[in-house]
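The instructor's notes for this session suggest beginning with a concrete chain rather than abstract definitions. Hand out the sequence below and ask the class to guess, before any prediction is shown, which regions might be ordered.
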Amino acid sequence: MRKNTQEESTVPVLIVTAGFILLGLIWAGDTVYRAFRAPKELILIDERCSEPEEPSEIISVSEPLQNDSEEMTVWEASLELAGLPADYTVRRMTEQNIQTGILASAPDDPMNDFRNKNEYYRLKDNTLQIQESAVRAMNALAESYDSETGRSDLLIYSTTECCQSEGALYPDFLPDRSTGFCLDLAFLNDDGTISVMTEENNFWIAENAYRFGFVFSVPDAVYHIRYVGKVHAFLMHEQNLSPDAYLDALRNYPVSAPYSFTYEDKNMLIYFAPAAAFGSTDVPVPENREYEISGNGRDGFIVLTSGNAE
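After discussion, reveal the predicted structure:
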């Protein structure tokens, strides 16, 4: 009788133990199931860290300055900085510099008035503001205009007003007026009235403006000229390119394969240096030659230099 009682007391213990074992197996199985079922892409990120940025887009270039150059992407051109030509160094340019310079959207120097203008043209009023380099170029253009045509009727109507009032002589919205390098021309008549410049009466300006560093930056605005410097104006004139098309074409010419040409019996080189994706950019420049550098107003820099060491 004692033996049966002992066996009966053992049964509940075995049942309880089996229950615990079963619960343990169920818990373990559920844990394994959840681990494999959990989404793989879920990653805990420290909120103090910023999210990763999207990779920079590779920008393809458009038509070359001439048709003998292969296309090159900005990414490919940036690789040129890894191996500079032997007589080159680098000049560090900031992100802000992309927007400044003679080919960009903002002037390098402070604006000023026409206090240094000559007597060969007039101003609509004395409040007009301009870059000094554009004043010097306009002085030379107006003097030559007077000498070669016998006329002294040139008038600077406006300079920096991007959009003038509806009743203005030239009410068009022209964004590059804000650069400080633009001039809207008109004619001052003997009776004091002002006449608009048209395709029919601006023939001499249209044919000769590039000689003084000016281009017509807006095709339909025949009264609107922009100073870009003599060499850039020469290339735009020779290649029949607008400033925007000119900047696009120069993307095909990195420092390792610059565009080479002759200007006033001098060998000249011009090339494009893409801006770094973030921060400052080390732009390649020659060590023993003079050079000019300008932001392109978009995503890089244009360097102009002579082809021979000084």
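Then share the key points. The helical segments are 2-37, 74-78, 132-149, 203-208, 230-239, 243-249. The chain has a mean pLDDT of 80.
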